Amino acid sequence: MAIAAALVSEFDHEMAVTRTVLERVPFDNPAWAPHEKSMTLKRLATHVATLPRWAMHTMGVSEFDLGANGYNPPDLKSADELVEEFDKIVADARAVLANASDADFMAPWTFRNGDQVFFTMPKASAVRSFMMNHSIHHRGQLTVYLRLLDVPLPSIYGPTADTPV
């Protein structure tokens, strides 16, 4: 099996689940955070919605310099806007992943901030760890926010107290 086929299958599953979480994000209090050191609800939800963009950053170049490029999240105002942005990014990311060759996936990719190199690894590993696992991590955080706000949680890997499947 080609690397793209394996990654795209996992990507499709995780992005579909992530979409069900993003659909439930309430925007009535976007500045809410469970702790002063935590991201706000809006910032975290926007981060989750835009994380799949890293597939394009990873597959399109041999390195990404955070210091030179930064992160400018879109100013989304509703769950509908959040999901719409997510859907566009996911479609673009999926196309990039599906069309990559095994050689593309095995090329090295470096993540840095100026002179500080965080890591260099094959692009396939960077897509899985830096994009998908990172996305899953923050999706988990977002479900905790939703639980604290008494928003019913969707099924993620099986039943929840709110969605017994």
Helix content percent band:
55-70%
Supply Rg.
16 Å
| Amino- and carboxy-terminal Cα gap | 32 Å
Q: CATH architecture, please?
A: Up-down Bundle
Name the CATH superfamily assignment: dinb family like domain
**Class inferred from helices and paired strands:** mainly alpha
Number of helices: 7
Mean pLDDT across all residues, rounded? 95
Uncertain runs are none
CATH topology: Four Helix Bundle (Hemerythrin (Met), subunit A)
* Major sheet: 3 strands, mixed
Overall 3D form: globular
Helix and strand string, N-terminal first?
HHHEHHHEEH
Explain this structure to me?
This protein has 165 residues and is mainly alpha-helical. It has one domain (11-148): dinb family like domain (Four Helix Bundle (Hemerythrin (Met), subunit A), Up-down Bundle). Helices cover 56% and strands 10% of the residues. It contains seven helices and three strands, in the order αααβαααββα. It has helices spanning 3-22, 41-50, 54-60, 66-69, 79-98, 102-106, 123-148, and strands at 63-65, 108-113, 116-122. It has a three-stranded mixed sheet with strand order 1-2-3. Strand 2 (108-113) and strand 3 form a beta hairpin.
Map the helices and strands.
Blueprint lengths: L2 H20 L18 H10 L3 H7 L2 E3 H4 L9 H20 L3 H5 L1 E6 L2 E7 H26 L17
Parallel strand pairs: 1-2
Antiparallel strand pairs: 2-3
Helix pairs in contact: 1-5, 1-7, 2-5, 2-7, 3-5, 3-7
